[in-house]
């Protein structure tokens, strides 16, 4: 069964480049991102892991723990990390899960037979502190992931988890938000002291409430 938004992220124990992790225990009360790669020593994924490492401060300030997974063994991961650090001018600073028996890949439905019988597709799962899946993204092998978009979505998820707002198309941190339909206009005016702009009865905006 494919995982859906709101499902509990499957727990697992795995060997990684930073030792054994018990996934839920490792996450603790943090947000998490687990993202998969078809194989070690692949060009697009080399750039992605390097980019993730360079964004360490951005993930940390959002309280997000990052872990990658590939169906290759640990020794291969360790050699690949050397290449990533060299070619991407960074230092990989998060664990890479070794998944040669495809346990994690199958738990997270990362094997798509139409794409490959044995390799993981390039999926992203954002997981909340409640261990529930908040976002899933799956990319083709030919297209590198946009980590600015991933961070943007995390910003939106964290904002909307705490306030009764949604974020409009192309929203960026600091932009106005949409008041969710479940909140009446009368209540919205009380709830959002920065003001409520009524565009239509169903479309009401307010300045980002946590700014």
From TrEMBL:
Superkingdom of the source species: Bacteria
Q: Does the keyword Lipoprotein apply?
A: no
Record Gene3D superfamilies: Antioxidant, Horf6, Chain A, domain2, Glutaredoxin
Top EC class, one word: oxidoreductase
- What EC number(s) does its UniProt record assign? 1.11.1.-
Residues in Thioredoxin domain copies: 3-159
GO MF terms listed in the record are: peroxidase activity
PANTHER family in the record: MCG48959-RELATED, PEROXIREDOXIN-6
**Family (UniProt):** Belongs to the peroxiredoxin family. AhpC/Prx1 subfamily.
The protein's name in its UniProt record: Peroxiredoxin
What is the source species? Answer: Larkinella bovis
């Amino acid at each position: 069964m494919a995982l859906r938004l709101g499902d509990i992220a499957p727990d697992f124990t795995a060997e990684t480049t930073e030792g054994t992790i018990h996934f839920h225990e490792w996450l603790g009360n943090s947000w998490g991102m687990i993202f998969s790669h078809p194989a070690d020593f692949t060009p697009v994924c080399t750039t992605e892991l390097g980019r993730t490492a360079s964004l360490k401060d951005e993930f940390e300030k959002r309280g997000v723990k990052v872990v990658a997974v590939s169906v290759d063994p640990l020794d291969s991961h360790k050699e690949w990390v050397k290449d990533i650090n060299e070619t991407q001018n960074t230092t990989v600073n998060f664990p890479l899960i070794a998944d040669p028996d495809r346990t994690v890949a199958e738990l997270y439905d990362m094997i798509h037979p139409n794409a490959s019988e044995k390799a993981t597709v390039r999926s992203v799962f954002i997981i909340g502190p409640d261990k529930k899946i908040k976002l899933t993204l799956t990319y083709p092998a030919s297209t590198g992931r946009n980590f600015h978009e991933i961070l943007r979505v995390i910003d939106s998820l964290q904002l909307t988890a705490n306030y009764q707002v949604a974020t409009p198309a192309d929203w960026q941190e600091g932009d106005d938000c949409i008041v969710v339909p479940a909140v009446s206009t009368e209540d919205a005016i009380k709830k959002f002291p920065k003001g409520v702009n009524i565009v239509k009865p169903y479309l009401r905006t307010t300045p980002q409430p946590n700014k």
